[in-house]
Design brief:
Layout lengths: L2 E10 L3 H19 L1 E7 L3 H8 L5 H8 L3 E6 L14 H11 L4 E7 L12 H4 L3 E7 L7 E8 L5 E6 L4 H17 L3 E6 L5 H13 L7 E6 H10 L6 E4 L1 H14 L7 E5 L6 E4 L16 H14 L3 H16 L2 E2 L9 E2 L2 H13 L2
Parallel strand pairs: 1-2, 1-3, 3-12, 5-10, 8-9, 8-10, 13-14
Antiparallel strand pairs: 4-5, 4-11, 6-7, 11-12
Helix pairs in contact: 1-10, 1-11, 1-12, 2-4, 6-7, 8-9, 10-11, 11-12
The structure holds 1,4-dihydronicotinamide adenine dinucleotide, 2-OXO-4-methylpentanoic acid (COI) and magnesium ion.
Magnesium ion binds next to helix 9.
Family: Belongs to the isocitrate and isopropylmalate dehydrogenases family. LeuB type 1 subfamily.
Pathway: Amino-acid biosynthesis; L-leucine biosynthesis; L-leucine from 3-methyl-2-oxobutanoate: step 3/4
Subunit structure: Homodimer.
Length: 362
């Protein structure tokens, strides 16, 4: 029987439309092969939405996302909007989408593919076999805490304020996702915080420690975030699953990206308790290479695989997408960001066409 899904597409800004085009082509072909049909609905977000309707997250877009089975997002942002007031910034639209869909758990896998060992910034013996899942809290912490703003002090000086805050309920729900993720993986969970300095981090550490009694099969450890950043580069193989707050997870997942060769390789899944998830690359809109056919579309394509696996419960289709990416790399095709001697560098579009050929060859 054919299974049908409604997918909202949010291409966004910069390289977003280029990598989204590749991902949609891949999804259509895999859909035909797996008896899945997709009803696509493209909507505005970020800078593109600001330009069109002066709102980085139009109500129509959020409503369309809520009515979908899954949302595929590319990236938002760009120099053009960097000096706009906060409510007219692309990033405000992205945060609004995450909050609006209550996507509190962001899964960011960083896996070194054997074909890309030469592309990593680290020595082969350091990165070989690395397979890390960063579980990042996504709707709390300093990105959302109040008070926030720029206020005047008694002396008339301006003072910028953001607040890092977590409730017990927020820590517990991301903690449970992390323990359950670790149970399905290597059984090790490292919680990353700054409990030596921050009250919010001490509460985080205490709660995660308490929760661990419910997961005796998971080996829990704790690291301060500065040490964790260093350890990720020093000996990344010590990590299996990492759980951390919104800001720390944002930074640590970009570090983890470079272990795998390029930020252009890292997909992610943003999930809530129920309702549609958003599937998006870890990287941003890369305005420095936008419109030049240089973008690596593989993080977006691998986000399609995460959508099929985590959002639509179609693991066989997800396997097909991931295996096509591995074949492409094994055949020596690369975008510029992951090139190494002896490989063939292609543009974003040509990488997409080659992936389709690989999929059609079965
Ligand atoms: N989820 C999202 O939509 C995110 C949006 N942003 C926004 O993106 C804009 C640019 O931010 P940046 O700090 O420059 O981060 P970025 O991730 O867009 O780019 C950082 C560097 O990585 C390269 N890069 C990124 N993705 C690539 C890809 N697929 N293929 C090849 N190279 C790639 C870029 O060319 C750039 O040199 C900003 O407006 C930022 O707020 C940043 C991160 C996440
Ligand atoms: C652009 C920010 C709002 C988010 C970000 O950098 C990320 O989610 O990786
Ligand atoms: Mg980021």
């Amino acid at each position: 029987m054919t299974q049908s899904y409604r997918i909202t597409l949010l291409p966004g800004d910069g390289i977003g439309p280029e990598i989204m085009a590749v991902a949609v082509d891949v999804l259509k072909v895999v859909g035909q092969q797996q008896n899945l049909t997709f009803e696509f609905n493209e909507a505005l977000i970020g800078g593109a939405a600001i330009d069109a309707v002066e709102n980085p997250l139009p109500k129509q877009t959020l409503d369309a996302c809520k009515q979908s089975d899954a949302v595929l997002l590319a990236a938002i942002g760009g120099y053009k909007w960097d000096t706009m007031p906060r409510h007219l910034r692309p990033e405000t639209g992205l945060l609004g989408l995450r909050a609006g869909l209550e996507l509190f758990a962001n899964l960011r896998p960083a896996q070194i593919l054997p074909q890309l060992i030469d592309a990593s910034s680290l020595k082969p013996e350091v990165v070989e076999g690395v397979d890390i899942m960063v579980v990042r809290e996504l709707t709390g912490g300093v990105y959302f805490g109040s008070p926030k703003g720029v206020f005047s002090t008694e002396t008339g000086e301006q003072r910028g304020v953001n607040t890092m805050a977590y409730t017990v309920a927020e820590i517990d729900r991301i903690g449970r996702v992390a323990f359950e993720t670790a149970q399905k993986r290597g059984g090790k969970l490292c919680s990353v915080d700054k409990a030596n300095v921050l009250e919010v981090s001490q509460l985080w550490r205490d709660r995660i420690t308490d929760l661990s009694s419910e997961y005796p099969d998971v080996e829990l450890s704790h690291l301060y975030v500065d040490n964790a950043a260093m350890q990720l580069v020093r000996w990344p193989k010590q990590f299996d699953t990492i759980v951390t707050s919104n800001l720390f997870g944002d930074i640590l997942s970009d570090i983890a990206a470079m272990l795998t060769g390029s930020i252009g390789m890292l997909p992610s899944a943003s999930l809530g308790a129920d309702g549609p998830g958003v599937f998006e690359p870890v990287h941003g809109s890369a305005p420095d290479i936008a419109g030049q056919d240089k973008a690596n579309p593989l993080a977006q394509v691998l986000s399609v695989a995460m959508m099929l696996r985590y959002g639509l419960d179609q693991p066989a289709a997800a396997d097909k997408v991931e295996s096509a990416v591995l074949t492409l790399l094994a055949q020596g095709y690369r975008t510029g960001d992951i090139q190494s001697p002896g490989t063939t560098v292609l543009g974003c579009k040509a990488i997409g066409e080659t992936l389709i050929q690989i999929l059609n060859q079965g």
